[in-house]
Amino acid sequence: MMKSGSVPCLYTWTWSFQLLVQYPNVRMTRGTSLAIQTEGMIRDIVRHLSTEEYPMLRRYCAETIFKCSENALTRDMVRQAGGLDPLVNMARNPKTKEDKPLLAAVTGAIWKTAISPANVERRLSSS
């Protein structure tokens, strides 16, 4: 994907204002951990976690973090972008508990990011 130039194109699309276009783009990038790291998409994915009026977008962003957090660099990028607090806040939200796919994505993302001791220390210090 990176050789063909489609990753920068996907990155550009995630900035589009039409959320109907954003949903599939976030979903398409889930399996491309390397591309997400090199193109700096984590900041945007974390930013979309706070979009309460679009729970489907939040779910796709949490799934993306879950899928990409196998890598320590991605876990650090999520912490540095401020992604831990929105994930924990989403898990605490009663509305999230009603949406089972969203809850699964959020708890999975928290679980995967907790592999890094620095992320666990960050959460414990802010609780």
Automatic annotation (TrEMBL):
- The source's superkingdom equals Eukaryota
Record InterPro entries: ARM-like, ARM-type_fold
Q: Which SUPFAM superfamilies match?
A: ARM repeat
Protein name (Swiss-Prot/TrEMBL): Uncharacterized protein
